[in-house]
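Tokens as discussed.
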């Protein structure tokens, strides 16, 4: 299997420049090999330091799939039951209530949930948790109770109420941070150490970690912000390096090459280069709708660091135990049953088990769903499909 690498280069090169994108790393693979890899632009605008294939980036919510796979590994080992009350493992979840509104003093009011939260609810984003990024009521709760943003990596950040009863609909939120807490509780290890031993070492993902090592810092990309006039400027941003908890929902730093090894493992039914980290039946479950009749809904911006976002808005989508699943063939060439998700600083990936290809695209800028970066990612994906067999 081959792709038209020159055509892909042209797509990505054209996206670098004045008011477009600061830097891009993009890669695609088949089950057997890397099909494409390219790096364009600068790690930090004006620095003169080129983006390279081994540039380290904050992958944000691309972390979620990694944490979810760790949770599924725990299910395989009999340490967690997908459908048992999660509070049996993380007792704090027994105290979580459903937000009903706010009283005259602006304090939140609650009621008890109709059912227990399970790991399946957490992994499919149907537990009822949300993010302040896309929910103004959560912002009000945080202000009233002095609850920090989850990006501060403080335990108090997880003391949020539900916005609906578990299992009733989909909403993006702190679910996977709680799943990470479950992994820690049943393994007796920090989430980062569990990932290291069960994924990063076996898959040779040597530049992926919650903590930025000295070697990683030498290769790290800066983050940028697009202004109202479309200009790009450096935006100093880094997650706490001595966190109270390792943020399973968005805390990893990595490279495109490391993440490509992770998605290739999924393409290869749970193994890579002779190292098996998941059973084939678990990988099958990671490719299937696990949320019943619920469907993924648009993310409506509630802060300036994101735009409204929905991938392929005219196509129905559900969630597996780790990924968004598209139910129809897509305009990029990805067939139904494809998997994908993204990270807040405009990093994206997809996995196509039918065709046997996957891709990773990383930029480092806000707002999420940037009007230059998201279309460039989609053009990259399209170019990979269009170029299959043409090289």
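Sequence:
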């Amino acid at each position: 299997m081959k792709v038209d690498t020159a055509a892909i280069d042209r797509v990505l090169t054209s996206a670098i420049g004045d008011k477009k994108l600061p830097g891009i790393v993009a890669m695609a693979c088949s089950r057997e090999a890397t099909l494409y890899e390219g790096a364009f632009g600068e790690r930090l605008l004006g620095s003169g330091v080129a983006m390279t294939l081994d540039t380290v980036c904050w992958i944000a919510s691309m972390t979620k799939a990694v944490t979810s796979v760790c949770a599924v590994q725990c299910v395989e080992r009999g340490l967690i039951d997908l459908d048992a009350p999660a509070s049996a493992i993380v007792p704090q979840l027994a105290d979580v209530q459903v937000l009903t509104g706010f009283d005259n003093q602006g304090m939140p009011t609650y009621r008890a949930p109709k059912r227990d939260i399970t790991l399946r609810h957490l992994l499919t984003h149907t537990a009822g948790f949300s993010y302040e990024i896309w929910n103004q009521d959560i912002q009000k709760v945080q202000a009233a109770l002095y609850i920090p943003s989850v990006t501060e990596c403080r335990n108090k950040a997880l003391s949020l109420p539900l916005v609906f009863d578990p299992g009733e609909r989909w909403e993006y939120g702190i679910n996977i941070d709680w799943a990470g807490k479950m992994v820690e509780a049943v393994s007796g290890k920090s989430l980062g150490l569990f990932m290291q031993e069960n994924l990063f070492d076996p898959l040779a993902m040597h530049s992926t970690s919650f903590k930025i090592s000295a070697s990683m810092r030498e290769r790290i990309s800066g983050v940028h912000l697009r202004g109202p006039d479309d200009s790009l400027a450096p935006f100093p941003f880094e997650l706490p390096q001595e966190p109270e908890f390792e943020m399973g929902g968005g805390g990893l730093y990595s490279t495109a090459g490391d993440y490509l090894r992770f998605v290739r493992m999924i393409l290869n039914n749970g193994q890579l280069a002779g190292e098996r980290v998941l059973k084939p039946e678990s990988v099958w479950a990671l490719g299937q709708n696990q949320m019943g009749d619920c469907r993924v809904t648009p993310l409506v911006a509630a802060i300036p660091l994101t735009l409204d976002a929905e991938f392929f808005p005219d196509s129905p989508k559900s969630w597996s135990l780790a990924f968004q699943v598209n139910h129809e063939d897509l305009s990029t060439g990805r067939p139904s049953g494809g998997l994908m998700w993204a990270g807040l600083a405009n990093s994206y990936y997809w996995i196509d088990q039918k065709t046997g290809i996957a891709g990773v695209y990383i930029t480092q800028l806000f707002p999420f769903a940037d009007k230059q970066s998201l279309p460039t990612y989609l053009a990259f994906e399209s170019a990979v499909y269009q170029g299959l067999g043409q090289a």
